[in-house]
Amino acid sequence: MEFLQNNLIYAIPLVGIIGLIVMITKSAWVSKQEAGDENMRTLAGYIADGAMAFLKAEWKVLSYFVIIAAIILGYSGTLVETSSWVIAISFVIGAFTSALAGYIGMNIATKANVRTTQAARTSLAKALKVSFTAGSVMGIGVVGLAILGLGSLFIVFYQLYVINTGGSVNGLEMEKALEVLAGFSLGAESIALFARVGGGIYTKAADVGADLVGKVEAGIPEDDVRNPATIADNVGDNVGDVAGMGADLFGSFVATLLATMVLGREIISNDSFDGIAPILLPMVIAGLGLLFSIISTSLVKIKNETSNVQNALNLGNWASIILTAIASFFAVKWIMPETMVLRGYEFSNTDVFLSIMVGLIVGALMSYVTEYFTSMGKRPVLSIIKQSSTGHATNIIGGLAIGMESTVIPILVLAGGIYGSYHFAGFYGVAIAAAGMMATTAMQLAIDAFGPVADNAGGIAEMSQLPDEVRDRTDNLDAVGNTTAATGKGFAIASAALTSLALFAAFVGLAGIDQIDIYKAEVLAGLFVGGMIPFIFSSLCISAVGRAAMEMVKEVRRQFKEIPGIMEYKAKPEYQKCVAISTNASLKEMMLPGAIAILVPVIIGFIFGPEVLGGLLAGVTVSGVLMGIFQNNAGGAWDNAKKSFEKGVEIDGQVHYKNSEPHKASVTGDTVGDPFKDTSGPSMNILIKLMSIVSLIIAPHINEGNHSEAKALHNKVSEPIEVVITNTEINQFEKLN
User: Fold this and answer.
1) Which of 150, 162, 388, 688 has a CB 3.0–4.6 Å from the CB of 395, allowing a cystine?
2) In angstroms, rounded to a whole number, what is the distance separating the alpha carbons of residues 700 and 634?
3) Closest CA to 635 of 674, 680, 684
4) Nearest C-alpha neighbor of 541 from the set 502, 485, 597, 593
5) What is the pLDDT of residues 670-721, one digit of tens each?
6) How many CB atoms are closer than 10 A to CB 75?
7) Model pTM score
8) Residues contacting 159, CB < 8 A, separation 6+
9) How far apart are CA 137 and CA 118, in angstroms?
10) C-alpha span between 69 and 87 (Å, rounded)
């Protein structure tokens, strides 16, 4: 125990290495599974090639951004005492690792899709095992990379700026180390935003185009090989829901830990770890969460065709949460001192553990509520199905209403979580609650990523014209995958809310301000502008999908019209042209939303100062969380309402199936919901965190202390000169006169 105590800081990246070893082992197992016949492998090859081509094109564009941003960051780091040019290196490493996290997920997903299809020819249990193992490769790999990267860089910067200089753990030296480390988080979140927005535009342009022409106009199945957009649609599942989600949760994970570490620096801790226990704790909790997520993945399995897949996933999820909670108690008691103080708020190590419990409970409740609002057979989805019977418009109305209704309970849960965690341990409690919630990210991401794999498997089964029982099994997995995707996005937006509050508290400290006074007109104006940003951001994303989808629709219609024999399986569609439309549209359209997230905080901060910027961040956070929940849940509910018709639904005593009028109305609703749940909605959590991290990076440059010193000097110079004449001097003057 003494050895571990002396070397705990080095054990953290070691856990990340263990995660990567497990990831490689699981990936090798998936690769060894049978990949089906030649036709199946050919179709899977089209999908893999399209996904890789998109990633290469995206990386080429983003490399220019990374180079320019690194140069600016490196220069700005030399302008203030609490930063360094090394922040540029930290930024580049974060950007590279975030892109790598996305690639890991996409690579295994494009291998696993056809293997899941082949497994589904045998049994539902085997199909689940292949698809979920692929999902766990992504989850474990992403978290392993995050812990390894963050833990290793912290060791380097701690040694460089604190140990080597003989600096203080609570002083400017540690502040400098964490400010440079924040560059890693900024790089991760920047790539995550572009990956999520770009991937979301790609996948939904293809999906909407394929649905509107293929299903609605031509009346062919969703993944029919005759549909020219079907390959682009399946590629989109990988670049958006897999690569985008991988980069997204990598960035979220890093940002959460960083926020807690920045606040931990302010705590004077009498511990056995040279005073850095509050900084180490979030990384330790993250490491424990990774280890218990790895263990819990072995619990996700079913016995036969009638077993409930959702229950199997829930078992693994709850096991990871409970095991992490138990281990956290002992970790907190061992690492943290009995009592601590942060900004005048005193709390104990028990209070810290209770805050972690609050975070775990909030994460579990958010997943449960999201599952309720988006699952088949539950009231929200059933209400949309019923309203589909009276047409397209009532389906849209029903979906919008469910999305809006679905914000109520999550916001109350988040509000309770914020209040409870702050009550226990102040702002450090809020931050460590977010870290506790994110501790089981590996399991959450595994559950989320298995969905797109199952979706692709169903597409390959349909395109390969495999027997109905194969498609039934993949549809079973896909329907659960729609729900898990929605719960994953609910989990992400919940973590964003808590993380953003922690980043906000860290920003206030680094910016040298005590409070954000909304009674001031300029701060209130910033609050309103911040509240507007998620709306214009969503507008840009959804409009981009609409424009790209219009091009896709025209291309699909053209091919149906100009290439004779497609409908009779005598001619092969030109899949590459649809892939090119989605690729070009996503790369062109992702830049403006990304620029808004990065540039707005810089402009507001340098022109109006930190307090107005604080008002802006508050507005973005509140509005963005609501928009994210609304769009994710509305889109998920619309999607599963549409899928319900595949097995038949009863409306007013009559059973309706595919191609019925209510089904066509549900397809319209799903088409509207697609950019909600896969483009703008899931981007909200990255938008919130990225703007907060940018603000954290520029905080030393706009520190209110600098402004205050300038104001004090100005006031001193402007003061009237007071001349004091003594009585003696007056008497002498009178004698002379």
Assistant:
1) 388
2) 40
3) 674
4) 593
5) 888 988 988 888 888 889 988 988 998 998 888 865 544 433 433 443 344 3
6) 11
7) 0.86
8) none
9) 19
10) 11
